[in-house]
Design brief:
By secondary structure, the chain is α+β, with helices and mostly antiparallel strands. The chain contains three helices and eight strands, in the order ββαβαβββαββ. The chain is globular and about 40 Å long.
């Protein structure tokens, strides 16, 4: 790092009792563990599974995830999406907290199509992802999955106004 000294930011950053790898930051800069990062920390998960919709999106699973967050009064923090080709099923995980104020969420599927990116150049995929995200507001997090037919699909979790 150029200009300025670095410091090691020790283990146990989040006071969870689990050692964390050290962070390095420039002297005088704010610690990387600020309020926004702490607000995202979570340790509870819910699993949803179902078939791809005809358009190869997550289909009705989007509402199932949002309904769980709404009815369980949880603060959604992350999603994971995996297409299990051998079973022909989607697996969606929702990471959440039940000790923080809940808020409404929605999952959006955006088909990106077949993009020849199984090489080292991901620029077309990155451009398609950027275009898709430009059409959606209040994105909390995202996931990308690849169908058995080679179609990429983005899933965005957004904060919805109550």
């Amino acid at each position: 790092m150029q200009g300025g000294t670095t410091k090691q930011f020790g283990a146990n950053l989040l006071n969870k009792g689990v050692p964390k790898p050290p962070f390095r930051y420039r002297e005088g800069l704010q610690s990387p563990v600020g309020p926004m990062i702490k607000a995202q920390v979570h340790d509870k998960f819910k699993v949803f599974t179902g078939e791809l919709a005809k358009d190869k999106t997550i289909g009705k699973l989007a509402e199932e995830v949002a309904a769980f967050a709404r009815h369980s009064h949880v603060a959604a923090k992350s999603i994971g999406v995996e297409y299990i080709e051998s079973a022909g099923r989607l697996l969606i995980t929702l990471g959440y907290c039940d000790d923080k104020e809940p808020y409404p969420i929605k999952l959006h599927s955006v088909p990106l199509g077949k993009i020849g990116t199984l090489t080292t150049d991901f620029s077309k995929l990155e451009a398609a992802m950027a275009e898709a995200s430009g059409k959606i507001r209040n994105i909390i997090c995202h996931e990308l999955y690849l169908t058995g037919d080679g179609d990429f699909v983005m899933v965005f979790m957004t904060h919805e106004q109550a």
